Amino acid sequence: MTSPTSPTSLTSTAGTPRRVVVVGGVAGGMSAAARLRRLDETAHVVVLEQGEHVSFANCGLPYHLSGEIERREALLLHTPETLRASLDLDVRTGHRVTAVDPASREVVVESAAGTARIGYDALILAPGAVAVRPPVDGLDHPSVHTLRTVPDVDALRAVVDRLAAQRTAGDERARAVVVGAGFIGLEAVEALVARGLQVHLVELADHVLPPLDAELAPLLSDELAAHGVDLHLGVSATSVGDDGVGAVVTLSDGTRLPADLVVVNVGVRPATQLARDAGLDLGPTGAIRVDADQRTSDPHIWAVGDAVEVQHAVTGLAGPVPLAGPANRQGRRAADAICGHRTTPQAPVLGTAIVRVFGLTAATTGANQATLRREGVPHEVVHLHAGHHAGYFPGAETLHLVASFAPDGRLLGAQGVGRAGVDKRIDVLATALRAGFTADDLAELELAYAPPYGSAKDPVNMLGFVAQNALDGTMPQWQAADLDEALAHTLVLDVRSAKEFADGHVPGALNVPHTELRTRFAEVRDAAGGRPISVHCASGMRSYLATRILRGGGLDARNLSGGWFTLRAVHPHLTTA
Amino acid sequence: MTSPTSPTSLTSTAGTPRRVVVVGGVAGGMSAAARLRRLDETAHVVVLEQGEHVSFANCGLPYHLSGEIERREALLLHTPETLRASLDLDVRTGHRVTAVDPASREVVVESAAGTARIGYDALILAPGAVAVRPPVDGLDHPSVHTLRTVPDVDALRAVVDRLAAQRTAGDERARAVVVGAGFIGLEAVEALVARGLQVHLVELADHVLPPLDAELAPLLSDELAAHGVDLHLGVSATSVGDDGVGAVVTLSDGTRLPADLVVVNVGVRPATQLARDAGLDLGPTGAIRVDADQRTSDPHIWAVGDAVEVQHAVTGLAGPVPLAGPANRQGRRAADAICGHRTTPQAPVLGTAIVRVFGLTAATTGANQATLRREGVPHEVVHLHAGHHAGYFPGAETLHLVASFAPDGRLLGAQGVGRAGVDKRIDVLATALRAGFTADDLAELELAYAPPYGSAKDPVNMLGFVAQNALDGTMPQWQAADLDEALAHTLVLDVRSAKEFADGHVPGALNVPHTELRTRFAEVRDAAGGRPISVHCASGMRSYLATRILRGGGLDARNLSGGWFTLRAVHPHLTTA
User: Fold this and answer.
1) Under the GO molecular function aspect, what terms does this record hold (chains A, B) (predicted)?
2) Total Cβ atoms within 10 A of residue B161
């Protein structure tokens, strides 16, 4: 690959070192600065960071709040001094860039020393994102916090230390309200519970972790409830008041939650004021538009990280994606381009993300069902509940996977929730997505198998097998969301055992265990009376066999994706018999 | 995909069910039988198994020996009765097929009931593999066992139970000799140690787990030694005698090992006598030759599993690969072909495999270095020692990865050893191999990152980054095996701290910590005196920075792949200062 950039315009004249200014000293910006130095020993690289810290572990903040990362210093991966020693970088914290002058190639920077102008041959903007401030009255209440920076976590720890001490002393007041059940919100909840606080979690969407498909979210809700978290779903916080003792959060349904601590994390938006003022092109979502080499509309300015627009691999939609991995790679790419080094093709973003919620892991890659529906992308959804390793080996945990496939078999997205092995499968599926793999390819993947690690037919292979059967007509599917239609127009056939049926079932379903289906075929045929048959079992495996028996006998049978387990998640009223 | 087979010749005339005979009722054979039934409700499917058990968990046998899988029944995943009930299969254990008559389309089968002939429209051979019997005198000694089947493990457990009881009673004699340090041999060692036996492990190759690259094997040797296992590498067992009390194993170096138990697992070979006698084409390695649909040279006979020849994805070499995953998929494919169902393209085999050795995991996918050297495939090797998750999050374990890349960047193979996260990375790399990914693609993979699970720059991304730098000339490498040449013709420069250097170093190396390299540049230049500079640090990261500083100053520097850690593994005499 040869870079389309013309490095000559940026290489200074003979003997004069290249001057590079980087605005923002965390993930993307610091990756760019480090790569620049490694590629160009003579360049003068200045990193301007408005905060007190550079290159800190922002993804580690919730775990410092919980105490799991005990030492604050562990979060500070580098300091200006260590970066000077190993990479000869000129890193200046407490330096805020207030303007960019593209014409003179200078930035205006304010610091304790006053205002200065710094010239550049190449400028890299890595301003990151800022927390979205939701429309809630009273957000200035002193009990309201957010969790984005080292100072944020310092402040939160001080409050939590005090509350934990009060609670130890017998004071029942140690209540927290967390607004926003996204990735960081859930990590904050986990941390606050670990510190002994009573936590209320408020989420506007109808399920926790909104990027997750709805049928997986109840697993997280159950885990949160099992750890004493009070959930308030489908409601918003409308105001934060004060009752003389502490804060009171009022929700849109009228609930009033007294709180000693309120943590608000409802998302981020790109920090693009500087780019906008400099006249750089922004995309429709307000993020900075860049080319394949991270170059902005100004030939001397690059941009990386949470503030830039990227293309989503599955939907093709453009927008910002606030993830550390892509930010680091963008920083590297910008440095390569500036130095005239071979740049690697920028891969569209998959949005791969993961979160620990107490004992569970939830992860996603590619497009979720809500996005595919919204964008009108035809897709077949497959649900799987499988052991994370061989079932005959002790300790197998159930792994819940959902994957979507295009009609031609191409994988579009996947999600997983479980107590073990989720991260592995989502990483394999993220790799498969990047490769453009189909259900056939997943079926043929050759993954590492020994009983402690997986199965001869790994859950990822199984997703491929099930999708093949669903897409080629071997096993037509129905989905849990279709239950009303199934009850109205088809025979619902439950092929679990009589005992399982007695413990809870769909009202109106016929129960014929799958092992009796061959001998009781006529009974089922007569009950169907010409209608299609909507088969289900607990997870989808026995009902697959049943579907094949019925179809082999000439009946129009289809299999419930995910079985009773997914049905109950989508229709909670079915939980009791 | 449309199958190239002509199903019409196998579909019986109107109304007559298709007759299929499957020889062998474990992984591949049983997968074929089950898929056949699911695709064809009317077929008559007979499974003939010479042993007592079908569909048993052969990969679980060592864990039943150790007691980790306590219940023997857990290994027996299905019985003829359960297979009859759910899949209407006619499964006959204790039935040995002694001949195939392709002309009359019949098999000759012997059982307790005598000899019979069974006709078929389609025959699937899944005979598996048989243990290789090494050239050792006295292998008929009653103390000699192997570990391939349920009866094998039953016999072993009886011996081990007795020995463990003797040991508990104070008898020091409870000694085992395991011959063969491959995957199953290592699992057997782990099991015997868990049961309290003193274990000697004998391996002809110069390192344990011969498929593993030599520089990773010392990690396993150290783990085995830490658990009290006595290693005998580079020697063979020549005879098993008897000293009147028990067996005595004599090794090729003259060592005599008294033993109460000898377990021999030196590999397997395809069980192809039946196919050979039937006149089917065999490949050059003696395995059964099949087409893309698993069909043999006889149009009515298919073959699957350990006995068939497959093509290796990286080397293109043909040969048998005894792995459960490929066997299962081959069974499925044969059934699809017989039923005229769409078959999926057969992917060449990667040889992905994994083993637990006490607290360590070792895994491999694709071609190892020994194979690439033997086949003359040009390749660049990259070593990485990285945390299995973010270093600032507690509990990060070092993951040791080795990967080989073609000059154009294509991944050729990868291996890993460590206490956590090895299985995930090897599965991602196996998926990347299948996709034909390059170092650039690995660098751009978007894997799930939160501190408990990985790093923003995952070890797999890092392999890509390092390989990019090595291949595009940014960071030329030298390898641990080149140490003598480096000492003879270059300046060996150790850029670790003075403390690390004092704790052990290459005799003759110059020590300049990487942070002092810019100020002591002239000293290094003068010491090199025009020679190239062979830089190293502990793992390869600081020496990468040093290499860039030196090259930025016009010197010919190269970086040691894997650093001091890999150097010590290859040159054990360097361990002490």
Assistant:
1) oxidoreductase activity; thiosulfate-cyanide sulfurtransferase activity
2) 12
